[in-house]
Sequence to fold (595 residues):
Amino acid sequence: MFRYSKWTLLREVLLWVAALIMLLPFYLLINTALKTSADALATPAFQPATNPTFNSFIDVFQSGGSATLLLGLFNSAVITAGAVIGLIVFGSACAYVLTRRLSRVSTVVYYMVLVGIVVPAQLGLVPLYIGARAIGLLGSPFGMAVVYTAMLMPLAVFLYGGFMRAVPVEYEESATIDGASPLRTYVQIVFPLLAPATGTISIMTGLIVWNDFFTPLIFLNGSSAATLPVVVYSYVTGLVTQWNNIFAILIVALVPITVLFLIMQKRFIQGFTGGLKS
Amino acid sequence: MTATQQIPLDSVVPERPEPGRKSRPRPRRALTRYGSWWWAMPALLAVLGVHYVATTIGGAYAFTDFKGIGSFEWIGFDNFTRIVGDKKVFGSIGNTLFLAIAFLIITNVVGMILALGLNRGVRSRYILRTLLFLPVVLSPLAVSYIFRFIFQVNGPLNAVLGGLGLTDWQHAWLADPTWAIFTILAVMVWQNIGMAMIIYLAGLATVPLEIEEAAAIDGAGPWARFRNITLPLLQPAVAISTTLTLTQGLKVFDQVQGMTGGGPYGATDTLSTVIYRQTFANGQFGYGAALSLVFTVIVVIAAAAQLFLTRDRNAGK
Fold:
């Protein structure tokens, strides 16, 4: 019944039109970044760059004080990796204990953790800011990774917990019978079985941390640990309307995640929907 | 006599939970030790510290005149009286709710239309899916700058409108108090359509083709099939997608900060931008905390209302 008919073709054409309209901003982004400063201001935006140049990229990499673009990339990578590792190690262990132990306490604690998904972090940020300032963690990548790990922990526990309930306990029982310690059972049997959940959590939380602007704006603004969005923000605020340079910065900032997405697009999409279904 | 000694098998083998039903593992003798509470401690302490202790302290600041440094006084409900008398705050609450609701509706409707379009038969669906999803993974702040360029007075959008002869439709989008908020909405929608789309695609994958075929054979048209078969089966996807878009919409910050900074004249200020400015730019930690408390209450009420509206009405029937 659902053969490829002329209606399917029409649908396909309309979808391509929609997709191309959606992608127009990327054309403007690349096109403008390749223009000279004079052309970027004087020529219409849609007109292809007549003599494309990479000057804006060179400009962007040569300027900048303490918080340069490359440093921002590096900081973002370090903080994202730290937070994701923390969430995987501590989140999976916590979800394991909370969902496998069947006492009333574990159930109550599990739901108390989940409350953190709904309540926005804003209210806690002020005391965290003051606390971090007091112990000197303001402007430190390590402190930032710890804050993210704690902020996103409820989400990680929720996703791991949902997945863990679908994993049969028989594996663990036979491992115990074979003489494995609880730690070994967990590390060698349970954790590998959680790989799909680990993938989902890495992708979801990694994207949240990598793209977050609000938290680092508060904790890292003006420090040498500023992440990419904060660096982009301070650059652009200074450039006002030098659109070719602004767009060169944006391209540098967007390329890593875009490349990663295009390489692993299936995993990204599965990560989003896989985690959401449970 | 052997026959009487045979015990029916199913009285020995305990009943397994029905497949597909979510159930916790049955309580059983402590055959296996599932880790120790110590393993959970780092995560639990982190959650306790950030989501409980810090939030409670933040809530307490709401009743002080704390400036971020030095001592402070307890001033009761003064901060809240100030919020009630602050027209700008009310404007920002209105803007936040408008953005969140409009964003939720448009993103989900367009996302679902795209998902339905992509669902069956389209040959290039994988590449289309990838292209339409790409904006989701990008930094909202960076994306906002691209759109700030597009919405400029002498920018591409006005150029296109002029080229089409629609000069009446041209506006100073970002500087016009009426239109500025729609530019924010446009970025939010553009970036998140793909997310709604893949959630609905995942939901549509669970709709059995046979049921649709049976309905079609019985004479149900496309709309009737959508309304009576597809949409009810998409209920979980609708619940998830609306939850995500609602919370995202209420928390909107990056796009406002990147496009308009809350201007012109607070026309695009949202609760998040006001909280940020009052707390960290103006150093009014007490007042900012009171605003955050109001914000938290709004988010929790909205989330509860949304859960109620999109609940599975057939559950338990």
Summary: Chain A has a mean pLDDT of 86.
